[in-house]
Specification:
Number of helices of chain A: 22
Radius of gyration of chain A: 23 Å
Number of strands of chain A: 8
Distance between the termini of chain B: 68 Å
Structural class of chain B: mainly alpha
Largest sheet of chain B: none
Strand order of the largest sheet of chain A: 2-1-3-4
Distance between the termini of chain A: 67 Å
Strand content of chain B: under 5%
Largest sheet of chain A: 4 strands, parallel
Order of helices and strands of chain B: HHHHHHHHHHH
Radius of gyration of chain B: 23 Å
Largest interface: A-B, 70 and 62 residues
Oligomer: heterodimer
Shape of chain A: globular
Strand content of chain A: 5-15%
Helix content of chain A: 40-55%
Helix content of chain B: over 70%
Shape of chain B: globular
Structural class of chain A: mainly alpha
Chain lengths: ~450, ~230
C-alpha cells in the first residue's frame, strides 16, 4: 500500500492515509453525537457576519496580513464542513454537487490554520456577538486529532503522560524528580541559609501541588521561590509522586484527553487526601483544572488555586515579606492568556509586584486585553512551528516588550516562558525573562527555621 | 399601481410580518431549547449567566466598544444599526399603517429626524459595502449574501426616502412599490438568512458561555484509537 505524502506542517505519530475526508466526517459525526457542540455550530453558522472586526485585534492577522489568518475565516472552514455534511440543506446540496473533494481541501487548510492559532481568545472579546473562535478551533483540532492529524509533540507527550512509565509529558522518572528536588533543597540551603523542603506524598496536606514538568527540569528558581513562600507562610503542601505534571495538552486538542489527564490528577489528590489543588506558574494547567475539573470528575469539586493567587493572599495577610531593595531595574509583566483573558488572575500578580518592585512598567495592552506571547494553544511545543511563532505569532509581543524599556519580563507560565525566551533570542531584545517566583526567591525574607 | 401598493402594504405585509414572527419564534425557541439541553448534559452546570448577560447588554448599545483599532468602521456600523432599528418603527407613515391595520398607534419621529436617520442608514450601508469590497483581505471572507443583504437594506431605505422628496425625479408610486416590495422581502429574510443575527443576538453570548460546559461521563474514545481511513480498510 502506498501512502501519498501530504504536505503537513508538522510531523504526526500516525498520519492519515488517503480518504481522510471520510475518516474526518466519521469522527466529526461521532463527536457531534456524544457532545453538545452541534447547537453552537448551528448558532454560529446562522449569526456569523464576517464583519472582520476581530481581525484587526488578532496578532496573527496583524503580522501576516494573510486573509486565512482572519479568525472569522478560520472558524468558517469548520463551519462550512459542518453545514455541508451535517445540516439537511447542506447534505442535499452535497448530494447534487459533491463535496468530498472540497472537504479534503478544507482539511488541508484546517491542518495548517488551526495550528497557527494560539487560541488566545482575544478575537472573542472584540466580536460583537462574542463568537468564540477559540472554541471552534479547539473542536476542529479535536476532530483532526481523531483522524490522526495532531502534532506528534502533543500526542506523544500526552501518551507519555497517560500511559508512559513516568506519567508525565517529558518522561521524567520519579527517581530523577526526587534527585532534582534534593538538589533544589540543597540550593536553597546554600543561597538562603535555611532548610526548606519539597514534600512528596505527604498525606492530608492542604494543597497538592502541580507544576508543569518542565519546571522540574528548567525552572529551578521558580520552584525554589514557590517552596520558600509556602515554607515561610507555614502552608502544608505536597507533590504527588503518581502524577506531578500540571500540563494538559488535552485542553488544546481533545476533550477525551483533557478528561483523562484531569481524572488522573484527581485520583492522586484523593489518594493523598489533599484538600485543594495548587497550580504552579502555568496558564493552561490552571484553566484546564478550574474550568473542567467538575466536568470530568463526578465527585465533590476540589478547589483549585493558582500559586499567584495564593502568594498574593499571603502577602496581603503579611505572612511573607519581600525585600523591596533587592530588585532595582525596571520590570514588566506578561499576562498569560489562559489566566488573564477571563479576568481571573490580573490584579493578584500586580499586587505582588507592587509589594516589592519599585519600577514596574505595564505593556501597551495588558490584563484582560493582553496580547498572547505567540506560543499559546500548545503551539510552543511544536518544533516545526517555530519560524511562524517567531516571525508572525510573536512579533507583536516582541514589540511590546521592547517598548517597555524593562530589563526583566515576568511570565508566570511555562509555555510563555519558552516562547518569550526564544523571542528574546530571535529579536535580540535587551531583557531577561523570569518567573514571578524567581524574583520572589531573590527577595523573600525567611525567618521560619523549621 | 395603487392596487399593487395596497396589496404590498396590506395582505402581503401581514404575511411577511407573520413569517417574521413565526420564523423568529422558531429560532428563539430552538436556540433556547439547545441551551437548556447543553446545560442539562453538562458535567459542570455552574454557568456564568451574569457575565454573559452583562456582556450582551454592553454590546446592545456598544458605544464603549467603538474605540479601538477600527473606530470608523465600528462607529459607522453602530449608526447603521441605530437608524435601521429606530426609523422603521417610528416613521410616521409606518405608525399610520399600524394604526390602520390594528387600531393601535404610537408617537412618531418628526419628519426631519426620520429623513436624517434614513440618510444615515443609506450612507452607512454604502460605506459598509464599499469597505468590504475595497480590500482584498475583506473580500476574501465575503460571500454574495453579504453584499445582497446590505444592498437590500439600502434599497428599502433609499426607495422610501426618494418617494418622499419633492425634488426627486422618480415617480413616487413606483418608488413606493419598490420600497414596499423590498421591505416585505427584508422582513421575510430576517429569520432565514444572516440577518437572523438580529433575532439571535440576545442569546448568542449565553449560548457561548454554555458551550464550554462539556458533557461529563466516561471518556469518549480510547487513547490508542485513531480513525481508520478508507485506504487503511482496503
Amino acid at each position: 500500500m502506498t501512502v501519498e505524502k501530504k504536505p503537513y506542517p508538522f510531523t504526526m505519530e500516525r498520519p492519515p492515509a488517503e480518504g481522510r475526508a471520510a475518516a474526518f466526517l466519521s469522527a466529526f459525526s461521532d463527536i457531534l453525537r456524544a457532545s453538545s457542540y452541534r447547537p453552537i455550530l448551528d448558532l454560529y453558522s446562522r449569526i456569523t457576519l464576517h464583519c472582520s472586526r476581530c481581525s484587526t485585534e488578532c496578532m496573527l492577522f496583524e503580522a501576516s496580513g494573510d486573509p486565512a489568518d482572519n479568525p472569522c475565516y478560520r472558524s468558517s472552514i469548520l463551519l462550512r464542513i459542518y453545514r455541508r455534511h451535517f445540516t439537511p440543506r447542506g447534505r442535499l446540496l452535497t448530494k447534487l454537487t459533491g463535496g468530498i473533494a472540497r472537504t479534503e481541501r478544507d482539511i488541508d487548510e484546517m491542518t495548517e490554520s488551526y495550528y497557527h492559532c494560539t487560541a488566545c481568545g482575544r478575537c472573542t472579546r472584540y466580536c460583537p456577538f462574542g463568537i468564540d473562535h477559540r472554541l471552534v478551533v479547539r473542536l476542529g483540532r479535536y476532530v483532526l486529532s481523531e483522524t490522526g492529524i495532531v502534532p506528534k509533540n502533543l500526542s506523544a507527550s500526552t501518551r507519555e503522560q497517560l500511559e508512559g512509565p513516568a506519567r508525565n509529558t517529558s518522561g521524567l522518572p520519579l527517581k530523577v524528580l526526587r534527585d532534582n528536588l534534593s538538589f533544589l533543597e540543597e540550593e536553597i540551603r546554600e543561597i538562603k541559609g535555611v532548610s526548606v523542603r519539597f514534600p512528596v506524598d505527604v498525606m492530608d496536606a492542604e494543597y497538592v501541588f502541580f507544576a508543569p514538568v518542565s519546571d522540574y527540569i528548567m525552572e529551578a528558581e521558580t520552584l525554589m521561590g514557590i517552596a520558600c513562600v509556602l515554607h515561610e507562610a507555614g502552608v502544608s503542601w505536597t507533590i504527588a509522586s503518581g502524577d506531578f505534571d500540571a500540563i494538559n495538552y488535552g485542553l488544546f486538542y481533545s476533550d477525551a484527553r483533557l478528561g483523562d489527564i484531569l481524572r488522573s490528577m484527581v485520583r492522586e489528590v484523593r489518594r493523598l487526601k489533599g484538600r485543594k489543588i495548587l497550580v504552579g506558574e502555568c496558564g493552561h494547567a490552571y484553566r484546564s483544572m478550574r474550568d473542567f475539573l467538575s466536568t470530568y470528575d463526578s465527585g465533590e469539586a476540589i478547589p483549585v488555586e493558582h500559586v499567584l493567587e495564593l502568594t498574593s493572599r499571603l502577602i496581603e495577610e503579611k505572612r511573607i515579606e519581600l525585600d523591596p531593595a533587592v530588585i532595582s531595574e525596571r520590570v514588566t509583566y506578561h499576562d498569560p492568556c489562559n489566566i488573564a483573558r477571563s479576568g481571573w488572575i490580573v490584579d493578584q500578580p500586580r499586587a505582588i509586584i507592587r509589594s516589592f518592585i519599585r519600577d514596574f512598567a505595564e505593556m501597551d495592552h495588558a490584563g484582560i486585553d493582553n496580547y498572547c506571547c505567540g506560543g499559546g494553544g500548545g503551539t510552543v511545543a511544536v518544533g516545526e512551528l517555530k519560524q511562524y511563532r517567531m516571525e508572525v505569532a510573536g512579533r507583536r509581543k516582541a514589540e511590546q516588550l521592547r517598548k517597555t524599556g524593562a530589563g526583566t519580563v515576568i511570565a508566570p507560565c511555562a509555555n510563555c516562558k519558552k516562547q518569550i525566551r526564544e523571542l528574546i533570542a530571535h529579536y535580540r531584545l535587551p531583557l531577561n525573562l523570569a518567573g514571578m517566583h524567581d524574583l520572589i526567591f531573590s527577595a523573600i525574607k525567611i525567618k521560619r527555621t523549621e | 399601481m395603487h392596487d399593487i401598493l395596497d396589496f404590498l402594504t396590506g395582505p402581503a405585509a401581514r404575511f411577511s410580518l407573520a413569517l417574521l414572527a413565526l420564523g423568529s419564534a422558531r429560532l428563539l425557541i430552538l436556540t433556547a431549547a439547545d441551551i437548556i439541553s447543553i446545560v442539562r448534559h453538562a458535567g459542570n452546570k455552574k454557568i456564568e449567566y451574569g457575565e454573559a448577560l452583562a456582556s450582551t447588554l454592553s454590546w446592545t448599545a456598544p458605544v464603549g466598544h467603538i474605540a479601538g483599532t477600527r473606530p470608523v468602521f465600528s462607529a459607522v456600523s453602530f449608526l447603521f444599526h441605530l437608524g435601521l432599528i429606530i426609523t422603521p418603527l417610528f416613521l410616521l407613515e409606518h405608525v399610520m399603517l399600524w394604526e390602520r391595520g390594528t387600531g393601535y398607534g404610537w408617537t412618531a419621529l418628526p419628519g426631519g429626524v426620520a429623513d436624517g436617520l434614513t440618510l444615515l442608514v443609506i450612507l452607512a450601508g454604502i460605506f459598509l459595502v464599499t469597505y468590504r469590497a475595497a480590500d482584498r483581505r475583506r473580500r476574501f471572507i465575503s460571500g454574495p449574501s453579504h453584499y445582497i443583504l446590505t444592498g437590500l437594506v439600502v434599497t428599502v431605505f433609499a426607495s422610501g426616502f426618494l418617494a418622499h422628496q419633492p425634488w426627486s425625479p422618480l415617480a413616487r408610486t413606483t418608488m413606493m412599490v419598490i420600497h414596499a416590495l423590498a421591505g416585505n422581502v427584508l422582513l421575510i429574510a430576517i429569520p432565514f438568512t444572516r440577518l437572523s443575527h438580529a433575532i439571535l443576538f440576545p442569546l448568542a453570548r449565553i449560548a457561548t458561555a454554555t458551550a464550554w460546559h462539556f458533557r461529563g461521563g466516561p471518556p469518549q474514545s480510547s487513547f490508542s484509537e485513531t480513525r481508520e481511513t478508507e485506504a487503511d480498510r482496503q
